[in-house]
Amino acid sequence: MNSIHLICLGVLDLTASRKFYQALGFNEPASEHADVIAFFNNFGTKLELFPYEALLADIGLDAAENPMPTTFNGVTYAYNTKSVAEADRVFQRALANGATLVKPLTWGDWGGYSGYFKELNGYYWEVAYSKDWQFDANDMLIIQ
Question: EC number(s) in its UniProt entry (predicted)?
Fold first, then answer.
């Protein structure tokens, strides 16, 4: 197993979450089940939004014993950019569409430019840029 085809985020409000990710530029193809699930095409993976309680039911977990986390759960998602301007643009678009600022974009001791925001459901996203990064023909970040 060496592939991730779907990353599923359990969401509290599918409509609001769909609008947030569309505003960030995620591409959602037409879906006959758009009222109950959302899929966004990316390079190499898809981002899926699915109502949190329906996700619990699909896994077989009790909703009362597994409330939506309200604190950091140890997982972040990252959007790596090709320029400082792109990082600034994506970060500001997220904040303008309801994301909460966690850590402003700053130059770090690792030599790159990054910051964090929390989206509508509490998921943490990093937006980052490094002059040393390269991307392949499929726009995937090359890590050596």
Answer: 4.4.1.5
